Amino acid sequence: MHYYIGVDLGGTKIRVALAGVGDQIVAARSFPTGAGRGAAAVLQALQGGINELLAGAGCSRHAVAGIGVCAAGFYDREEDIMVHSPNLPGWDGLPLRRELEELFGLPVIVENDASAAAYGEYRHGAGRGQENLLLLTLGTGIGGGLVLGGKLYGGSRGFAGEIGHIPMLPDGPRCGCGRSGCLEALASGTAIALEGRKLLAAGTSSLLREKKGDAADLGAADVFEAARRGDGAAGRIIEQASFFLGRALAIAANILNPGIIILSGGMAASGDQLFEAVRRHFYASVSPPIAAGLEIAAAQLGADSGILGILALLREYLSTQ
Amino acid sequence: MHYYIGVDLGGTKIRVALAGVGDQIVAARSFPTGAGRGAAAVLQALQGGINELLAGAGCSRHAVAGIGVCAAGFYDREEDIMVHSPNLPGWDGLPLRRELEELFGLPVIVENDASAAAYGEYRHGAGRGQENLLLLTLGTGIGGGLVLGGKLYGGSRGFAGEIGHIPMLPDGPRCGCGRSGCLEALASGTAIALEGRKLLAAGTSSLLREKKGDAADLGAADVFEAARRGDGAAGRIIEQASFFLGRALAIAANILNPGIIILSGGMAASGDQLFEAVRRHFYASVSPPIAAGLEIAAAQLGADSGILGILALLREYLSTQ
Q1: 3-state secondary structure at position B293
Q2: Chain B within 8 Å of A273 (Cβ-Cβ)?
Q3: For a Cys-Cys bond, which of A165, A299, B85, B143 suits A182, CB 3.0-4.6 Å?
């Protein structure tokens, strides 16, 4: 048994990867999740995808030691069920790990995607050598993962790191979770795009209007680009989101005293433009002894951080069995 | 060697306790810190206090295995120095542990007081059986301590749990730390007393005026009492502080997914009046899957939680030497 399968189960697409010892990915493929068709259909698609992955790599299923799956959502480690996933409608209560073990006849572990990404960056990326780190995934939503004392930390039920839904602003904008003023409602790609569309509708941003005729097409990247090109109103949207991100990171740092904070995901790819503003607000809010020596860095593993993390966790899990 | 000494080094008083195996306190005494006279004088007073403690208990110094000290402030585990203590002016940079080891010729450990209290409640109090807990000390200031995965968690340098200085309100009231809008500036006993004095000065609270002629004497307990007796303005002060406390705990819970949150210190002694309001705001803000089964409970060890925690940590430290 010398191969391991890593799965990143997203709301839009599923990525499966085959790795040898040492977590080198030797083959990978992506395909649509088809989340709207329900859990059974998604698991069937996953099964098909894994079979194709193995066939393509000329790898027998008997050479595979186990499967590690990371997915967005609250996966309850104690009850071993998906309590709730915003991206996988109808999965609430699903005993995902057991279903996959039955389906494949192999040991399976399941982990939150941001937690797996944090572990991936700890083992192979920006967090190497740091015993305590916080990773934020900045995309359409905001997720968080923690490595504390050199181990993935999930808390009592595996839900730790739920930083996207910390309340940042009383009476703030409505969040997808049903609450108001969550970090995600103030600083995610979705929140930035929403503010950009408001600007476009109000006609106050010439650069945005030039860029997009139709507000519905406008994304966070367009707002970042308009701000970079000098559009003041777009710049204020980015500044406001960075303010809340910087303060949220300061809050988390005061609680955790991490050695490094890692930003990953689509928005983190905006690079200096985002990092400069977030760092400025972070250092203005965090307790000075905690700020000393603490770095806010970009993730290094790109879209593979979750897969690489779940593969490392899988190998460690199997070594204890 | 069958005895252990625990020290709670506060800004106003020092408490020293002698314990046998199992952390039973067999003798204890308290005396003024005299913090204004500087570190050398305080250490001398501590030495005198410990000698009296031993003499009073008829215990030879040679029967003592070590000393555990907890103190408010940022004690840097890596550099082994007190980086900053708000209650012990002039101690910044002091290598407290090494100085005490030299002074007593015994092994010494130093820990933040709220961290020690968290460990005390974990080992002997409200947190027994919980692997992940957050303890808040609510008094003139607000401190925090974390036990994660059954171990005291200090973060990269020992500063974790600094929840009193998380930024809760942009442009909020000035905090003793120099920043604005920290939790401590909004919800500590000091903050509540300050708001009460404003009420008294404005003459809008008849119950507070009846209670205290001189605003300078008015403390948080007076505001709690006036609120309990139906004073609306005092009630709004408590409600506002509870709002920020509840939200801060929701933030910490979203990040840590603890099994229990423990409130200790003078303000927590206000009991139901505080707990009801804090719980209400907590459950309105925390992510529902994290709230499920999570309890906000009162500390059970009173003023001894720090001493009992540092004694347990000391015995564990010595057992590894």
Answers
A1: coil
A2: no
A3: A165
Best mutation site among A166, A179, A283 for testing chain B: the one with the most B CBs within 10 Å?
A166
The answer to whether residue B82 neighbours chain A at the CB level (below 8 Å) is: no
Residue A50 neighbours by CB under 8 Å, 6+ apart: A5, A7, A16, A67, A104
Q: Which of A153, A158, A162 sits opposite B287 (nearest CB)?
A: A162
Q: Which pTM was predicted? A: 0.95
**Residue A287 and residue B161: Cβ atoms within 8 Å?**
no
- Closest residue by Cα to residue A177 from A154, A208, A153, A143: A143
Token digits of residue A48: 């098909």
Tell whether B129 lies on the interface with A, counting CB pairs under 8 A: no
**What DSSP line would sit under B57-114, residue for residue?**
HT--GGGEEEEEEEESSEEETTTTEEEE-TTSTT-TTB-HHHHHHHHHTS-EEEEEHH
pLDDT digits (tens, 9 = 90+) for B178-230: 899 999 999 999 999 999 999 888 887 766 666 656 777 899 999 999 999 99
Inter-chain CB pairs, A–B, below 8 Å: 126
Q: Which domains does chain A have, with CATH numbers?
A: 3-118+304-319 (3.30.420.40), 127-299 (3.30.420.40)
Question: What pLDDT score does B249 carry?
Answer: 98
From chain A, the residues in CB contact with B255 under 8 A are 144, 146, 160-163, 166, 252, 255-256
Among the partner residues A162, A247, A257, nearest to B254 by beta-carbon distance: A162
